[in-house]
Specification:
Blueprint: E1 3-11, E2 20-25, H1 28-37, E3 47-52, H2 85-88, E4 92-103, E5 109-125, E6 132-138, H3 146-165, H4 183-193, H5 198-205, H6 210-230
Parallel strand pairs: 1-3
Antiparallel strand pairs: 1-6, 2-5, 3-4, 4-5, 5-6
Helix pairs in contact: 3-4, 3-6, 4-6
Length: 247
């Protein structure tokens, strides 16, 4: 088993391969992480791992922007994640490549990263200024009938978008050229674009292969479309107005 050690960035959301992740960095632990990543030459990937939080808080409870600024602040790399951060995170996440890291005058950062490959979290190290993790990168197996399933998911996704957007709004997809046809890419795009809770998105991320993910998505799309059909007042998501960026 080949493993790699990378900085660890926990979020209250799921990152999928191929999807763009904008970040506004203001906590010191993540600012330290960005400063470390900036030491990597621009021509090399500036990689870190993103995991969804199972139990804990993305931002420390008394960090900048939180309501109670008079409380004793939680500090350190594990703030908000309890004494054993490994238990606070889902075990499967995504490696991200920070294409852009811009430091502002106040020391905060604006970051634009892209998900690259899935990974499994093995251990978490909290001995430094930010969390690092030992990871096992997970290959994406195609599975049986992935191509046919991708076609069905795309058709169902268009119907889902039309229902979500409503009769007077332009749906996300107006033609075949706007959506990919490679099964794995389809599976990740649809998983990211659907209005699903974090646990369901996490289930899709850690599917054993592309075909399994697509089968799950087909069931979800049909179910969600039926719900929207019966609840015409359901508010539309911004995802129906702006294309999801795969970059």
């Amino acid at each position: 088993m080949t493993t790699v050690r990378l900085p660890l960035f926990p979020l209250n959301s799921v990152l999928f391969p191929g999807l763009v992740l904008p970040l506004n960095i203001f906590e010191e632990r993540y600012r330290a992480m960005m400063r470390e990543l900036l030491k990597t030459p621009e021509e090399e990937p500036r990689r870190f791992a993103v995991v969804a939080i199972r139990d804990g808080h993305e931002v420390a409870q008394t960090a900048q922007g939180m309501p109670d600024q008079t409380a004793v602040p939680q500090r350190g790399p594990t703030a908000g994640f309890g004494p054993d951060p490994l238990k606070a995170f889902h075990s499967v996440g995504c490696v991200a490549d920070a294409a852009t890291i811009r430091e502002r005058a106040d020391g905060t950062f604006e970051v634009l990263a892209t998900g690259t490959t899935r990974m499994r979290l093995l251990t978490v190290d909290a001995s430094g200024p930010f969390l690092t993790a030992e990871l096992e990168e997970l290959p994406e197996e195609k599975g049986d009938e992935a191509g046919a399933l991708a076609e069905g998911v795309l058709r169902a996704f268009r119907q889902y978008q039309k229902r979500l957007a409503g009769a007077r709004e332009r749906s996300l997809s107006t033609g075949d050229t706007e959506l990919p046809d490679e099964p794995a890419v389809v599976s990740y795009l649809v998983a990211a674009a659907m209005m699903l809770d974090t646990s369901t998105k996490q289930r899709l991320l850690q599917a054993p292969d592309t075909a399994s993910r697509l089968r799950d998505e087909l069931k979800l799309l049909r179910s969600e479309t039926a719900i929207i059909r019966n609840l015409p007042s359901l508010p539309a998501s911004d995802l129906t107005r702006n294309p999801t960026s795969l970059n």
